UniProtKB/TrEMBL annotation:
<feature type="domain" description="Protein kinase">
    <location>
        <begin position="45"/>
        <end position="236"/>
    </location>
</feature>
<protein>
    <recommendedName>
        <fullName>Protein kinase domain-containing protein</fullName>
    </recommendedName>
</protein>
<keyword id="KW-0723">Serine/threonine-protein kinase</keyword>
<keyword id="KW-0067">ATP-binding</keyword>
<dbReference type="GO" id="GO:0005524">
    <property type="term" value="F:ATP binding"/>
</dbReference>
<dbReference type="GO" id="GO:0004674">
    <property type="term" value="F:protein serine/threonine kinase activity"/>
</dbReference>
<keyword id="KW-0418">Kinase</keyword>
<feature type="region of interest" description="Disordered">
    <location>
        <begin position="1"/>
        <end position="30"/>
    </location>
</feature>
<dbReference type="InterPro" id="IPR000719">
    <property type="entry name" value="Prot_kinase_dom"/>
</dbReference>
<keyword id="KW-0808">Transferase</keyword>
<dbReference type="Pfam" id="PF00069">
    <property type="entry name" value="Pkinase"/>
</dbReference>
<keyword id="KW-0547">Nucleotide-binding</keyword>
<dbReference type="InterPro" id="IPR011009">
    <property type="entry name" value="Kinase-like_dom_sf"/>
</dbReference>
């Protein structure tokens, strides 16, 4: 019968080859991978809801139709397709995947369970965290009680300490990157700006949040470990 044409290989639509929101169940497209990496996962995903998007990537919820498992997809615009000057490179995407997989066995880190690509996007698949992020919680409830703040702070502290001991710095710590899991723990996610603890790689301005950056990082004298602890202090 031969190979399927390129236009039929990815039965999805939207900005990154991923639909930008929910559609009727009978018409909801399947997002099927051509390349799957990481732990074995039968990926036949139905995209459900757009959660967040910016010029570099979008995040959406999805369900594996074979297992019923709910997951989160982070889809990056493929640099070779779009060629933007301030775009995540393939190396950066693969680094985020590598770090999330290396650290994901820790209870306070959101694990990346698989990855694949469509014709317009490189997609990372993460374990679903049902209770949103710390930013949403603060927006809804305002300042947290001291015991709650101590608990979530300890969760983030554990995640950062584990990352540093494993050889990685996060470099973009903020409430939006702290998710709240079904087990009640806060979990660190989004390792797109990560670097090795011994690296002195300058943090791209488009990959960070200025209000959480240390003075040294703003001047371009980057120390990832110090940047993490500075941001942790602001977070508290």
């Amino acid at each position: 019968a031969g190979a399927r044409p390129e236009s039929e290989a990815y039965p999805v639509s939207g900005r990154f080859g991923v639909p930008g929101g929910a559609s009727p169940a009978s018409k909801r497209p399947c997002l099927r991978p051509t390349v799957t990496r990481g732990p074995s996962l039968a990926l036949s995903l139905e995209v459900r809801t757009l959660l967040h998007q910016n010029r570099h990537a979008l995040c959406c919820s999805a369900v594996d139709v074979q297992s019923g498992l709910k997951l989160a997809i982070k889809a990056f615009r493929r640099p070779k397709v779009f060629g933007d000057t301030e775009e995540w490179t393939t190396d950066q995407i693969l680094r985020e995947r590598r770090v999330a997989m290396e650290l994901g066995h820790h209870r306070m880190v959101v694990p990346c369970v698989s990855s694949f690509q469509t014709w317009r996007a490189v997609c990372l698949v993460f374990e679903w965290q049902p209770h949103g992020d710390l930013f949403e919680l603060l927006a809804q409830k305002g300042a947290l009680t001291e015991p709650t703040a101590r608990f979530y702070g300890a969760c983030v502290l554990e995640a950062l300490a584990h990352a540093h001991a494993t050889g990685w710095c996060h470099r973009d710590l903020k409430p939006e990157n702290v998710l709240l899991g079904s087990d009640g723990y806060a979990k660190l996610t989004d390792w797109g700006a990560a670097c090795g603890v011994l690296e002195r790689q300058r943090l791209p301005t488009y990959a960070s949040t200025a209000s959480y950056m240390s003075p040294e990082a703003l001047r371009g004298n980057n120390d990832g470990v110090a940047q993490d602890w500075w941001a942790f202090g602001i977070l508290l």
